[in-house]
Write a sequence for this structure.
């Protein structure tokens, strides 16, 4: 199912029973480190996986350059050093891993473009306070202009969600995460993704998909898509607020993932006044 290191296997759904429980035990709530996220973006990053011990798994990938991730435990030096030689950079390094790697003599630095933004669930649900007043106004504007209904995104609504995604794609200059989002809809029950879908006068206009992380303290939003029309001004603000308001109160924090260093996206995420970040680091040999 998963090759022993140094051999690697492609990501597959058959690996979920082995990997998902381990991802569930991670306390940080890093958006990348869930089985669903790794699986859905396996083609985007050319992910491959290898097992190097009872709880040591190596995920190798590529963006502009090759990298590796050690989501659970660090391996001994005789495995770690060749990984740095082969892939050069370790990504999605947690704070505790960063400390361990620094003690081993590695160079470690903050990966600010990939920090996850964290928001207090109650604050997003209420949009209370002067700093979020403009967001609240946009929600009210959307509701004045539209009769919107919200439902859980169950398998029976998958066709509507796909229709939203296709219309969303047609409005974009780049496909972005379209392929992963499409597969997420098709596999949402298998991957145990939770979401909501929104209709205006019978027309499917927006949906959200995410999952529980950080041992049940946090909910991460992986996909949020909406159709843009003049009469739907405020739709994203409404969907953000309405979905969070419907989530169980056990979720203290909402993780809305990273800004990838895009200035516009950074401004948008900062405008919601995050209460903190899931900090991520990178590491390399000195």
């Amino acid at each position: 199912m998963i090759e022993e290191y140094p051999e690697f296997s492609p990501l597959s759904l058959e690996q979920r029973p082995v990997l998902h429980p381990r991802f569930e035990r991670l306390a940080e709530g890093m958006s990348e480190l869930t089985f669903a996220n790794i699986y859905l973006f396996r083609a985007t990053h050319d992910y491959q996986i290898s097992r190097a011990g009872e709880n040591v798994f190596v995920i190798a990938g590529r963006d502009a350059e090759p990298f590796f991730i050690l989501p659970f435990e660090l391996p001994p030096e005789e495995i770690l050093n060749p990984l740095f030689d082969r892939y050069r950079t370790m990504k999605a390094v947690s704070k505790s891993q960063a400390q361990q790697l620094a003690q081993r003599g590695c160079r470690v630095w903050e990966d600010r473009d990939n920090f996850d933004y964290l928001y207090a669930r109650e604050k997003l649900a209420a949009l209370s306070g002067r700093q979020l007043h403009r967001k609240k106004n946009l929600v009210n504007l959307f509701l004045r202009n539209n009769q919107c209904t919200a439902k859980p995104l169950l398998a029976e609504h998958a066709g509507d969600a796909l229709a939203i995604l296709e219309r969303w794609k047609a409005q974009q200059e780049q496909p972005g995460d379209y392929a992963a989002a499409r597969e997420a809809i098709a596999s949402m029950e298998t991957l145990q993704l939770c979401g909501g879908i929104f209709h205006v006068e019978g027309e499917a206009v927006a949906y959200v998909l995410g999952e529980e992380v950080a041992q049940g303290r946090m909910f991460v939003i992986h996909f949020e898509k909406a159709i843009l029309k003049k009469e739907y001004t405020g739709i994203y603000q409404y969907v953000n607020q309405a979905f969070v308001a419907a989530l169980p109160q056990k979720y203290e924090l909402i993780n809305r993932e990273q800004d990838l260093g895009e200035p516009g996206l950074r401004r948008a995420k900062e405008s919601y006044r995050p209460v903190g970040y899931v900090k991520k680091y990178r590491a390399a040999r000195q």
